[in-house]
């Protein structure tokens, strides 16, 4: 089930969030970010945040926000995280499909991912399967904890005209 995220949901999701940012493999978030800062970033600042719950457990989440302001506020941006135990079970796909529907309901015409780390091949392949195109490469944009400097992709999908 996917529903809007509460602060209690985020508390349950926090171990996943903290693990992802500390790994420094996919998100350009401060790896030392505390719970409150993370909650503000993921839940309070965006338009909405959602959670995937199954069997009473939070298995994944996403946020949605405008990618730009004013004349660029018709394009949205989302971020997704799935718990390690739930990876490979189609949850990221369900979250992305849900986010696209929410984006359309909110009046967005397109979705853009600003920095998909090139070595995150599972995510890149999934986004491509869901119709996102790589529209740009930012050389050496991400300092991967294990691999050093790697490229990041800008990915885009038109949702409605």
Sequence-ordered SSE layout with sheet pairings:
Layout: E1 2-4, H1 7-23, H2 35-44, E2 48-54, E3 57-66, E4 75-82, H3 91-105, E5 110-117, H4 121-129, E6 133-144, E7 148-158
Helix pairs in contact: 1-2
Structure description:
By secondary structure, the chain is α+β, with helices and mostly antiparallel strands. It has a domain of 111 residues: Gcn5-related N-acetyltransferase (GNAT) (Aminopeptidase). It is 32% helix and 37% strand. It is built from four helices and seven strands. The protein has a seven-stranded mixed beta sheet, with helices on both faces. Strand 2 and strand 3 form a beta hairpin. Helix 1 packs across helix 2. The longest helix has 17 residues. The radius of gyration is 15 Å and the shape is globular. The two termini are 29 Å apart. It comes from Photobacterium atrarenae. Pfam families: Acetyltransf_1. This is GNAT family N-acetyltransferase.
Major sheet characteristics? 7 strands, mixed
- Which CATH architecture of the domain at 2-112 would you pick? 3-Layer(aba) Sandwich
Helicity range of the residues? 25-40%
CATH fold category name of the domain at 2-112: Aminopeptidase
Number of strands: 7
Provide a count of the helices: 4
- Secondary-structure element order, N to C: EHHEEEHEHEE
Oligomer: single chain
User: Given this structure, which CATH class of the domain at 2-112 is correct?
Assistant: Alpha Beta
Pfam family, one: Acetyltransf_1
Domain N-acetyltransferase: 1-160
Organism: Photobacterium atrarenae
Protein name: GNAT family N-acetyltransferase
